[in-house]
């Protein structure tokens, strides 16, 4: 059968390039961001030293929120330069690498007593990152990370068989994030 007429066959991109995610897949990826709670964030020091850290997050509207200590390396780096890289890994298949969703974000440090934080806490939106004594930490602060530009992923939207046959060329998807909610 000619692949150009086979509707079951997805286009195979050149390795290292991503297929544009359709609207349904974009929605699925945004829902996955909202449902997950762990990511790694990459920052850079003022002299360019890279740092990454795993954090627990809560997705609220179009941002990820995390709690940290103001004296932590990630908070100091974010205070100096609010650009971060975010990677959300998650297991979808029992074998092979985890799926990932990654993007760049604008990050900012938000004080514990800021009105917007209080409103989110009162509405019950930050429960998973404030339920272990975080609100009593004298050096505590919140980090708000808002995706900008393109959201890239590996795995979501690809057929399992395609991932097995061609892991480098079949799993990458991307789309422009124009803001809004993750749900």
Report on the structure:
With 183 residues, this protein is α+β, with helices and mostly antiparallel strands. It has a single domain (20-176), classed as Pnp Oxidase, Chain A (Roll). It has five helices and nine strands; from the N terminus they run βαββββαββαβααβ. It has helices spanning 23-35, 73-80, 115-122, 160-165, 167-170, and strands at residues 19-20, 38-44, 50-56, 58-60, 63-69, 83-90, 99-110, 140-154, 172-176. Strands 1, 2, 3, 4, 5, 6, 7, 8 and 9 form a nine-stranded mixed β-sheet that branches. Strand 4 (58-60) and strand 5 (63-69) form a beta hairpin. Residues 1-14 have low confidence and may be disordered.
Short note summarizing the structure:
With 183 residues, the chain is an alpha+beta fold. The chain has helices at residues 23-35, 73-80, 115-122, 160-165, 167-170, and strands at 19-20, 38-44, 50-56, 58-60, 63-69, 83-90, 99-110, 140-154, 172-176.
Characteristics of this structure?
alpha+beta; 183 residues; Pnp Oxidase, Chain A; 36% strand; single chain; 5 helices
Q: Specify the oligomeric state.
A: single chain
Class derived from helix and strand content: alpha+beta
| CATH superfamily descriptor | Electron Transport, Fmn-binding Protein, Chain A
Stated plainly, the CATH topology is called: Pnp Oxidase, Chain A
Strand content: 35-45%
**CATH architecture descriptor:** Roll
| Total strand segments | 9
How much helicity do the residues have? Answer: 10-25%
> Which radius of gyration do the C-alpha atoms yield?
18 Å
User: Quick one: CATH class?
Assistant: Mainly Beta
List segments where confidence is low: pLDDT < 50 over at least 5 consecutive residues.
1-14
Total number of domains: 1
Mean pLDDT: 88
General shape? globular
Order of helices and strands: EHEEEEHEEHEHHE
């Amino acid at each position: 059968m000619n692949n150009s007429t086979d509707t079951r066959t997805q286009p195979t991109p050149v390795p290292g390039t991503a297929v544009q995610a359709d609207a349904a897949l974009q929605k699925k990826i945004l829902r996955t961001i909202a449902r997950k709670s762990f990511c790694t964030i990459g920052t850079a020091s003022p002299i360019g030293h890279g740092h990454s850290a795993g954090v627990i997050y809560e997705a609220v509207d179009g941002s990820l929120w995390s709690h940290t200590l103001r004296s932590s390396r990630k908070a100091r780096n974010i205070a100096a330069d609010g650009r971060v890289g975010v990677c959300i890994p998650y297991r979808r298949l029992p074998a092979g690498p985890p799926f990932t969703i990654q993007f760049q974000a604008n990050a900012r440090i938000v004080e514990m007593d800021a009105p917007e934080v209080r409103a989110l806490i009162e509405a019950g939106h930050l429960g998973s990152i404030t339920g272990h004594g975080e609100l009593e930490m004298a050096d505590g602060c919140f980090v708000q990370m808002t995706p900008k530009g393109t959201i890239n992923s590996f795995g979501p939207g690809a057929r399992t068989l395609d991932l097995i046959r061609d892991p480098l060329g079949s799993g990458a998807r991307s789309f422009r994030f124009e803001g809004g909610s993750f749900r």
